[in-house]
Write a structure and sequence with these properties.
Elements: H1 3-21, H2 23-35, H3 37-40, H4 63-69, H5 71-82, E1 85-90, E2 96-99, E3 104-106, E4 112-114, H6 123-145, H7 152-171, H8 174-180, H9 185-189, H10 194-197, H11 199-213, H12 234-237, E5 240-241, E6 246-247, H13 262-268, E7 274-275, E8 278-279, H14 289-293, H15 304-307, H16 320-334, H17 338-350, H18 356-368, H19 372-385, H20 389-405, H21 409-422, H22 426-442, H23 445-476
Antiparallel strand pairs: 1-2, 3-4, 5-6, 7-8
């Protein structure tokens, strides 16, 4: 065990001891804290005692709970690898496919039927069919054949893999064997290249292997184009023999993933792509709005100031071990060990400790690590706990920084202006000027999306016009 792990283990042990031994001290001191309540403008409550974990015979490994918690993320992942078709098409094997790559449609009672030629479904109907498929086809396999607990990222990758290769192939796969044997992370991800290391399967699983291995955050997948994974070349995904045109595999017949230069590969997955069912849209455009909204259950930023109702802060008089952990986290942050800092700060949340400062710290670390979507979400959570004008200003400023980093300069300026209404800093004025300059030089991402949609409409109209002229000329001949 290395020094870092030993130190983290001791800190964890100290935290548990502090929580038990310091319980009475917290209760005794709470009376004194209440006297300063109005001055601090902070609601003080005692730290809740965590409920003991209950064994669930119906979910012995906790995987059903993880599956249900990640259901919307799994839906998004499947829309990315499968695309959406409103009209049934032949998938190349003689099977009619509709919606999100479905060849079988489930009814509410669990009965099923094959997709018929000419069948149609809206995005909302396709989402219902996909939801039923998850419930009646994939979840039973998770319950019956997976005999080890999974975290959320492993669950998402597993469901995508199972969806792509089908139940029969999944049940006899090396991946399932390794999963049940306790293999995790990058060691498990390499088995996603199994099933004869087919390129199509490699393309579909590449980013989810990176997610499972800890090289990607889920947020980084949210701006991808449907089937954008097929923009990747074999050499982007794994070691590739250009002469034999085969993946270089190990003794288990598995190709080795290449997770270097991931940002460039993500950009490839956002490029324009055309498939057999037409122009591929961004995934956010082919799934129902409620799925996008429920990915993180986070309200839209535009309504924050109007509807703000601050959540109660948990006690600020916590055992010294918690303060020590936070200090260690910020020390790691200062040394650019962002993963280490985030791990400690997120462990603090698990203890029941929440508050504006903690979520702002998390937002700062996520921003520094380049995880701008997550930084935005954490800043929004910080805003919910804010009790003073200064706190609200800080949280809105952090939201603006995250928006600006992602190219949404109009939204960033809006956040900065709202921040100044609560508390004015020179840094906010500077940020507004910088966002305005960036908007002038680079344009706004929202404007670019609208522009690209407009170009697509014009191109489609031009193509239709050329087709009409061709038909007219053919009729004259």
């Amino acid at each position: 065990m290395n020094k870092s792990k030993i130190r983290d283990f001791l800190l964890g042990a100290t935290l548990l001891g502090g929580l038990v031994g310091g319980g009475m001290a917290i209760s005794k001191h709470s009376k004194n804290v209440k006297k300063d309540k109005e001055k601090a403008k902070t609601e003080i409550v005692s730290t809740p005692t965590p409920e003991p974990e209950q064994y669930d015979a119906n979910d012995p490994y906790g995987n059903i709970a993880v599956f249900e918690g990640a259901r919307n993320k799994i839906k998004f992942a499947l829309a990315f690898v499968e695309n959406y078709s409103p009209v049934a098409y032949d998938d190349g094997t003689g099977k009619w496919t509709v919606g999100y790559g479905l060849t079988i449609l489930y009814n509410a009672d669990g009965s099923s039927r094959s997709v018929k030629k000419g069948e149609k479904c809206t995005i909302e109907q396709a989402d219902v069919y996909k939801d039923r498929y998850l419930t009646h086809d994939i979840l039973p396999d998770i319950k019956k054949y997976i005999k080890a607990p999974m975290d959320e990222n492993t669950m998402i990758a597993t469901c995508v893999f199972r969806y792509c290769i089908g139940g029969k192939n999944f049940r006899k796969s090396q991946y399932l064997q390794q999963l049940n044997a306790g293999t995790r992370g990058e060691d498990l991800a390499k088995y996603l290249t199994g099933y004869r290391a087919q390129r199509g399967l490699m393309n579909r699983n590449y980013f989810f292997a990176a997610l499972m291995s800890g090289y990607l955050e889920y947020d980084e997948l949210l701006d991808l184009r449907a089937e954008g994974c097929y923009n990747l070349l074999p050499a982007d995904m794994a070691r590739w023999n250009t002469k034999s045109k085969r993946y270089i595999v190990d003794e288990d017949k598995l190709a080795t993933w290449d997770f270097s230069y991931l940002p460039e590969k993500l950009e490839k997955a956002k490029r324009t792509r055309r498939s057999k069912i037409g122009e591929c849209k961004f995934v956010s455009e082919i799934i129902p709005e409620h799925v996008m909204q429920n990915l993180y259950n986070t309200p839209d930023n535009s309504s924050f100031v109007v509807q703000h109702q601050s959540k109660p802060q948990l006690t600020i008089d916590l055992p010294k071990a918690i303060h020590n952990m936070r200090d260690v986290a910020m020390e790691k942050y200062a040394n650019k060990d962002y993963d280490g800092a985030l791990a400690i700060l997120q462990d603090l949340i698990k203890t029941g400790y929440q508050g504006m400062n903690l979520y702002n710290d998390i937002s700062r670390v996520q921003y520094a690590a380049g995880h701008y979507r997550q930084a935005l979400r954490s800043a929004q959570q910080a805003f919910e706990f804010a009790h003073s004008d200064k706190d609200m200003s800080d949280a809105l400023y952090n939201q603006g920084m995250a928006y600006a980093a992602r190219g949404y300069y109009t939204k960033a300026i809006d956040c900065y202006n709202q921040a100044e209404k609560f508390y004015r800093y020179q840094k906010i004025d500077d940020a507004i000027v910088d966002a305005m300059i960036q908007h002038e030089q680079k344009g706004d991402r929202t404007d670019k999306k609208a522009f690209l949609v407009g170009i697509g409409v014009l191109a489609a109209g031009h193509a239709a016009s050329k087709k009409r002229v061709w038909r007219q000329n053919k009729a004259r001949r």
